[in-house]
Amino acid sequence: VLAEKRSLGSRDGPPHLVAVVLLHGRAAAQDTLRLLQGQDAADVRAEEGRAGGFALLCPRLKQRWRFVPARAGDLHAVLDLAKVADSLLFLLDPVDGWDNAGEHCLSCLFAQGLPSYALAVPGGTDLPPKKRIDARKKLSKSIEKRFPEAKLFPVNTEQECSLLLRHLSSQKQRHLAFRDRRAHLLAHAAEFVPSQDSHLLGTLKVSGFVRGQPLGVNSLVHIVGHGDFQLSQVDAPPDPLSLNPRVVKGQKRTGNSALTLQDGSGNGADEMEEDVKVLMKADPSKQESLQSEVVPDPMEGEQTWPTEEELQEAEDSLKANRRVVKVPKGTSKYQAAWIVDDGEEGSEKDDDEDDDMDDDLLEEAVSQEGESSEEEAGEEESETMTVPECLRDDQYDEKMEEDEQMLERYKQERMDEMFPDEVDTPRDVPARVRFQKYRGLKSFRTSPWDPKENLPRDYARIFQFQDFSRTRKNLFRQIEKEETEGASVGWYVTLHVCNVPVSVMESFKEGKPLVLFSLLPHEQKMSVLNFLVRRHPGNSEPVRAKEELIFHCGFRRFRASPLFSQHTSADKHKLERFLRPDAALVVTVYAPITFPPASVLLFKQRSNGMHDLIATGSLLSVDPDRIVIKRLVLSGHPFKIFTKTAVVRYMFFNREDVMWFKPVELRTKWGRRGHIKEPLGTHGHMKCHFDGQLKSQDTVLLNLYKRVFPKWTYDPHVPEPVPWVRSESTLPEQEVEME
User: Acidic residues: which segments have biased composition (predicted)?
Assistant: First the structure.
């Protein structure tokens, strides 16, 4: 612990990275940063960086800090900086603490994983002394829920800023597991070199301090928000934040003052070009591949030639199926095989007619669905827009349409709570056609279900581990015991990242943080990820399964349409149609492999572009064999009740459906179990036998099950969220009256 604390911010370790997070619209961020820069000019060298960031170098204390302020309202910037920062410096308002946007930011940071932090309170000197003491007591009491036993640091003088710096350098560092096992880097400077083929792609030279683990040139790197890339080489330029810098010949000293300001707002290309050493170059034979999916071979499952066992099995089945048929004299065996009995011919005709009827019904159902979808598409194509006379009325009507859609969702969620999984039996399509992919189970808990049965084509594109937990343990054991060849922690290096789009450099020029993480083996490959999440209490809107959500998983961001299922210890897990507010659920998606532990945040994008936090949790497993079962419940009503038998109606509407579902066990809402004995008439009435007498108000249920899989809607590009509108209700009464 002592070695870790001494290395952070020292000559041999990386600078102490402090992310400055504004939690209130009125918190004086610029005044605080100015006071921190004005620390003891005789011993401190400050370097102004991009977007208001700067570095503090103190050779006397052998400490160096780098302060990077997060742009107010930019949620992605705050979360990205918190992924790599050693400490977070929260700036609070002396009266209210934080507003609604600050509350949302804190919820996301706590769910992602909070590093070491400090609470600073700038301002408040204009209040009378008595009110100042009361406001401080009130603020200390209000932050206890979020930050128990946290200390508030006023930052109004240079002496108070010195105490804050001492606290930041001496406090115990909190570890985030997903970053401690991977090398990561926050860009200090960057340069884009376009390729010869296209100006849109090129090599990105990113300079920064290596943190977490040693960085190897053959491993892949993930640029947060942009994707996975390969490295071509790693350079070692001079350290721009050295505590004992070399004196360059021809450079003039600046009098007695040791305070020097260096402009670091450029790309840093001049600094990188002078005295650059090439540390290592990528070896194509050892370099990790960027392949994320398996290219499926459509002929892979085809049978080329039967084996000896299959030929013997076919011979045995022929012997078992031999029959005695009367044939004319002189008929050969080949001719006799084509002679069919009258009874068999009739039964085959009946079977063919039934198959044709089922095919016709299925084709009619499919054609009806196709026609309806074509009509809907036609309506969408021929939709016209009229310019309203009053824009405000039109906007208000749009909001009313959204309200109606939300009301419909609330009704569906309420109906699913009252009547879970119950559906109405269709009248126009036979139930045996509509539910032909479903099956009955004797017991949902104990009945077997083969995890490799009827897999979708998307499963041919993903990777699966033979034993994921064992692979993870071996990998982490290697990280702890073996020393990785590469740039050590604390080195200032330049990474040459290949085939990077120019948009990455443009976002860096706009002042957004550029964060890189090295990937562990296999972490670029696609598989099925399962997250254990719980609904965030601040959001109550209904969220259906297979709706597009935004995921922040560890160091990744992506969009996907997930499935929700129950979290149980069984081998089968029931699908949930909505994200439940009262229980932990498992979310299943197609996504790149990530080794746990890793936190996950689920956001839903509003129509106006804002991102709402709807659920938080952690990565549970990477397991394509996890079986998610969708349940359908068909309900019927007792028409006539006898001692242990009853006539049930309204579950089916024709005799053939009753015969088709006859093997499936029945149950009732009051706990009775039974089975179908026989159909009555031709309109779906059936005689059922139960283990006891039914009540007249009871409902007869039939459960059907089908395995479901997530949709392949993975998209690594997530749009930037619209900043939160800060609430005016947090303003003090005096300022409201003045306005």
Answer: 341-363, 371-383
